[in-house]
Amino acid sequence: MLEHKRIEKSFNDCSRCIDSSKLSKHNIIAIGINTYLAVVEWDGLDDEHVIIVPTQHCSSSIQLDENIWDEMKIWRKGLVAMWKEQGRDCVFFEMSRHVDSNPHFIIECVPVDQEIGDTAPIFFKNAINECEGEYTDNKKLIETKDLRRQIPKGFSYFAVDFGLCNGFAHVIENHDEFPATFGTEIIAGMLDLPPKKWRKRETDELAKQKSRANKMKELWEPFDWTKRIRENEDS
Prior knowledge:
By secondary structure, the protein is α+β, with helices and mostly antiparallel strands. It has seven helices and eight strands.
């Protein structure tokens, strides 16, 4: 009973669930069948720093149904194509921490210059190999082929991909030694950004959020696969 109440409270307090009153709907770029794309509400690593989010509550990609996972990959393909047109590469990462507390997981998507994208795998590989001290029960660096079959359900983990290429994952054993800012800190370092860009995620003022969202909607429009869903619904 207590467990049920705890999970129910995590749903009610969630700012990512599509039906939640706490969701910042002005940041949403487009909504798919089971997922949506939104700009981040904080001062991101780039003005086009976005997140892919399941509409229903889920604490990790490992727990997603196959069709929802496939839909998240469609967003990624569209973003890769959009940024490629700008001459840029991109990094996708997810952090599933404290899965027992049932957080709503997101995939963060950050565009980077092409030369940064080329070196990103080396930076992340080195950082993962150096994390959490010398002794861990699990293999530190997992080269991902199918993330959802390589990480056991119920485990906390970090995972990163580069464009449409598979990347790396790491099972988090000691949360105290693996910061929630792990992914953003590495990318900020590659981009030579100041610490304030990754240390605290303070919500930006509403005008800035809306401005980012409007610009992103314009950029995304030619790649918006969700238009086909709306057209089918109208026909």
